[in-house]
Amino acid sequence: xxxxxxxxxxxxxxxxxxxxxxxxxxxxxxxxxxxxxxxxxxxxxxxxxxxxxxxxxxxxxxxxxxxxxxxxxxxxxxxxxxxxxxxxxxxxxxxxxxxxxxxxxxxxxxxxxxxxxxxxxxxxxxxxxxxxxxxxxxxxxxxxxxxxxxxxxxxxxxxxxxxxxxxxxxxxxxxxxxxxxxxxxxxxxxxxxxxxxxxxxxxxxxxxxxxxxxxxxxxxxxxxxxxxxxxxxxxxxxxxxxxxxxxxxxxxxxxxxxxxxxxxxxxxxxxxxxxxxxxxxxx
Length: 283
Ligand code: NAP
Prior knowledge:
Helix content is 41%, strand content 15%. It is an alpha/beta fold. The protein has a single domain, classed as Alpha-Beta Barrel (TIM Barrel), CATH 3.20.20.100. An 8-stranded parallel sheet has the order 3-4-5-6-7-8-9-10. Strands 1-2 form a two-stranded antiparallel sheet. It starts with a strand and ends in a 6-residue tail after the last helix. The relative contact order is 0.14. The structure holds NADP nicotinamide-adenine-dinucleotide phosphate (NAP). NADP nicotinamide-adenine-dinucleotide phosphate is lined by residues 18-21, 43, 107, 135-136, 157, 183-189, 194, 211, 226-231, 234, 237-238.
């Protein structure tokens, strides 16, 4: 495995396993298979409803805690968010069966963002989260958070795939010491990603699948990737991507696929803001 060093010295695997949209009753099996395949970074969220199952798989894996990198995410909290955030973190830790998280992310740039962040800073200082970061923050929101708070987010997990590449934003994050992490690295298969002719052609040049080309393209750019699959053979395929290098010419060809726009939702769109902000998790 290759690692990236976060702005507070924590080592994070470049490749991990995401569990969004895996039903809770299938998550323990999927995560157990992912751990057996060799994944050590697990990415879940309170909002996914499967933290408990992730915890069961961790518990029965026999893998030492220090060899795992576990991320979960705080859902949107109302003001004043300090107490809610601490309660939410404790609930996640209990469900996961852990005494600390490796990375705790604010899932959305909504609600009492400052209150949530200050509470996350406290959790970090107490060692309950080795690193804290954000997800779905666009440049304006990220800069505002960095400038006006003590701890700079270690990670920003954002939609990043061949059709929405975020190269300029990655550069800005690098300048501020924020590690970019891709969600939806395969664009969840949208735009016929897995049969894209250009990616297929590059895959043939290396004897690799489209999925492997995409994951190599991300990791070679220094983007942490967390592909999701419920199928053991794909879990193994998605992990087998660090033994080849894309050439500069191949990277340049993949750059031509960028549309510069989300395939999912724009976090600046008022309807999306209202929709996501309106959701609350049961305590
Ligand atoms: P994704 O990884 O882009 O795509 C998953 C899809 O690709 C599934 O349909 C999967 O099908 C298929 N797939 C996986 N490996 C494949 C392969 N080798 N060949 C062909 N098809 C393959 O989607 P995602 O789950 O949305 O994103 C990844 C992770 O990012 C999530 O699990 C979650 O942890 C995180 N995420 C975070 C946010 C956020 O707001 N922070 C939002 C979305 C996602 P099968 O399962 O049937 O194999």
